[in-house]
Amino acid sequence: MKRWPVRMTLVMGGCLLVGCARNPQIAKMKHFERGETYFQKGKCPEAAIEYQNAIQIDPRFAQAHFELAQCFVRQSQWAQAYGELLRTADLEPTNWKAQLDLGNLLLAAGKYSDARDRAQIVLKGDAQNAQAQVLFSQVAAAQGDLPQALRTAQEAVQMDPDRPSSYLNLALIQDRSKDPVGAEENFQKALSVDPKYTPAMLALGNLYEHQKRWGEAEKQFGQAIAVQPQDPLLRGLLARLFLNEGRKDAAEQVMQDAKNVLKNNASGYRMLGDFYFSQGEMDRALAEFASLTSEHPKDPAVAKTYAQTLILKDHLDEAAKINDNILKNSPKDIDALILRGQILIREGKADDALQVLEGAVKDAPDNAMARYNLGIAYADTWNIGRAEVEWRQAARLQPNMIEAHRALAKVASQKRDLLMLAECGEQLIKIEPHSPEGYVVHAEALVKRGDGAEAEGDLRKAMEVAPEDATAYIRMGDLRALQKRYDEAGKFYSEALGRNPSAVEALRGLMNLDLAGSQTAKALRRVQNQIALAPNNSQFYLLLGHAELRNQDPVKAEAAFEKAIELDKNDVEAFLLLANVQVTRGSTEKAIAGYNRALQANPRDLRIYVALANLMEAQGNWQQAENLYQKALQIQPDYPVAANNLAYLMLEHNGDVSVALSLAQTGRRGLPSLSNTADTLGWAYFSQGVYNAATDLLQEAIKADPQNPTYHYHLGMAYQRTNNYAMAKRQLEYTLQISPDFRQADGIRRVLAESPKKD
């Protein structure tokens, strides 16, 4: 009996402990408090797990939803943050911070009306909430209503004159409204309220930078770094300032300091290598990332950038080794899969690259870089339509991806889609207003549209933002040549070469002017002088070969084309020109050997297959020609030149007429304005007995090329089959008139002899 109270005490104490452990309110708060501790230490993934545990216990725990949203914001997981903020606002409508965060996310997503609604909700409950008023002004500014944006921004300042962010917002809108004086004044006011308010320092620094007030901008960025010395972004902005000022050494020193100071910050110690990479100093970038790989062997970002640099330097085996090691540890790593795709593309294995990159896109459909590289793989397999689709997706997913817009601009130029080309130029200008590229692209669209005056404005702007870049001077030379202002064209081309001695297009422009004036010797001297300045430029030897041909010296032309190939085995144009010279000189076997060399170096270039097939046809080896056209179509099934030519060979040599008709239709779809495809398709219809369709197409072919005897022969035979003997006779007789030795001459005479005398 004496022991009973002790046992009962223990049992009751145990019940109390179990009750505590099973009390959901206590359990959820423990998870929440652990989440708060992790969050304060910057451990967002761990904090998120604890907040989610609390929510699992109590799904209506509004504060946990809100704090979880803050975790997602810090990790830039915007969709998840939006969902948690929306849930917070539903559970606790008076959580003004959640409402405003939600409004800012909606603003960033372009949902202006919804963002304004959130600001109104806050102001209904708190009429003097300056942050809500700031959100109102930002919505108006985003919609282009700057007067309204200014009014509401000024009201926000009046609501809370001790809030630096209100002055910052007002200053930013004033800057957009072309009021730099007012903007500077309010940036300074924000800093007077809070001297350590780095957003205002950065905005003021940006203002000074745009005004080229270099020293004052440097002071602002320097003060921001002093306030937040561990933030690598601030050092990056200072380096950018130095680059814009032309102080590359100072920018490099900033990056070196970042590496030394931020030794434990991955973004910091990678800055120097990234700087070399961005400046195109690949050898220094390679050395830096090789060193970083040894110092930080567990940092996958360093390994990936090192592999990327190796790829750009064509050290593909070494890059593959590093990248394969990443994939061994993480087989689904999207960045590493993209790198593998890039390696395969550079190795000429576009089909294998397609398989890898399609898998990457399937796993990560919203990865812009995966889609961009998939587009490259499609382009390398001559599927330009699919390439364009992927590049458009990449640009949609990442609007500032300049590579995607650049690729689309090239497609637009090839398609002569001037609206698309102009839009690409506008996007490039928007992304990089201080780069000449966008202005040059936009100018190209205007020139092709016939608007030379507007194009000149773009080119002048390109020269202004990048006076040492040769591209705008080349395009201005092209414009002047188009306008027949040849002396001015020559001056612009010469200025371009002065800025870039390797500018092929500038030299080509000058040589074209020389040759147009029958100054062949001058053109030769010009290209020889430029080769002396840039002896390893394969394109200069290509131009030399052209000039030697104009000088009627095929021996020297052949030597020049050989040198171009020696310098660049992927110069397909040089291979094709060399073969033409060799055939002209009677060296057909050498030409065939050259084509085979070209195919070995460029196994997917369709031009080589077609050129060699044409030569085989000329040699009477139509079977080998058919085989080459078929190989080209294996690479690109809808390649119109190969489809058209193969169809014609099949029709001429008793091939499958149905297959030939399908191929001829492919050729016609791809080249609808070419007389040759009209003739082939018409002849295919003739072979199928569809004479009326054949007649229409053959008439179209003759309209485009009225002196082609083959077209007249085909049309005459079509008329013969439709019993239109008078027209048949006219066409067949005209065939013999323009080509007495026509290969079907005997057959034509028999048809004429056997035809009825009257229609």
The CATH class of the domain at 477-533 turns out to be Mainly Alpha
> How large is the radius of gyration?
35 Å
Estimate the strand proportion: under 5%
Q: What is the terminal separation in angstroms?
A: 136 Å
Mean pLDDT rating: 91
Question: In short, what is this structure?
Answer:
The chain is built from 45 helices and no strands. With 759 residues, the protein is mainly α.
Description:
The longest helix has 19 residues, at 4-22. The protein is built from 45 helices and no strands. Helix 40 (657-670) packs antiparallel against helix 41 (675-688). With 759 residues, it is mostly helical. Residues 1-21 have low confidence and may be disordered. The chain has a domain at 477-533: Serine Threonine Protein Phosphatase 5, Tetratricopeptide repeat (Alpha Horseshoe), CATH 1.25.40.
Write the layout of secondary structure elements.
Blueprint: H1 4-22, H2 24-40, H3 44-57, H4 62-74, H5 78-91, H6 96-108, H7 112-125, H8 130-142, H9 146-159, H10 164-176, H11 180-193, H12 198-210, H13 214-227, H14 232-245, H15 248-261, H16 266-269, H17 271-278, H18 282-295, H19 300-312, H20 316-329, H21 334-346, H22 350-363, H23 368-380, H24 384-397, H25 402-415, H26 418-431, H27 437-448, H28 452-465, H29 471-482, H30 486-499, H31 504-516, H32 520-533, H33 538-550, H34 554-567, H35 572-584, H36 588-601, H37 606-618, H38 622-635, H39 640-652, H40 657-670, H41 675-688, H42 691-704, H43 709-721, H44 725-738, H45 745-754
Helix pairs in contact: 2-3, 3-4, 4-5, 5-6, 6-7, 6-8, 7-8, 8-9, 8-10, 9-10, 10-11, 10-12, 11-12, 12-13, 13-14, 14-15, 15-17, 17-18, 18-19, 19-20, 19-21, 20-21, 21-22, 21-23, 22-23, 23-24, 24-25, 25-26, 26-27, 27-28, 27-29, 28-29, 29-30, 29-31, 30-31, 31-32, 31-33, 32-33, 33-34, 34-35, ...
